[in-house]
Write a structure and sequence with these properties.
The chain is an alpha+beta fold. It has helices at 16-26, 35-44, 91-104, 126-142, 177-189; strands at 4-8, 49-54, 60-69, 74-82, 112-118, 145-153, 163-171.
Length: 195
Amino acid sequence: MELKLERVHRADHPNVSHVSQLLEVTFPECERESIPDFLADLEAGRGHTLWVLTDPHDQFLGFARGMVFPSLKRGWVVHVALDPRHRGGGLGAELLQQVLGEMRRSFEGFEGMYLEVERLQEAATEQERAERQKRLAFFDRLGARLVSPDYIQPPSQPGQPPVPLNLLFWGETAASDDELLADFYEAAFGDTITS
């Protein structure tokens, strides 16, 4: 089946309503901006790039949001989600492979992308822990490596707490995990890490 990855630039795109709903139900408020802010940023061309995956009949399958850090020759996928009806069939890997390809075409020497995933120890229930374990196993099968189990994502919205996450890297780089983490904080948030 031929899948199509489309970069979306407008809030009135037909699949943005699907993205908004999936963003809202998949990610807690502390891990994403508000939906009105997401839509305003998309319309204004600010913030993260939005890619939408569709089937040959233009049926919405999922999305990814991210950005490229040209100075690092690396990218960052902030959110990736599939419509629940299409999970478990390899589409998540296909979506990320296509996004990686898009980022790689952005400039010569691209090394790979950062990914975030929830920590197991922060799971509130056994079911949540199992879901998080599934996501970690998915990224492991892709070949992503754990850069830091102590990464703290700054608040995504005013009034929300920082979020402890695992920071992963998928690609080829000579940088050490400490360098990857320090580079990421500086590029993504303008912060430096002191040991």
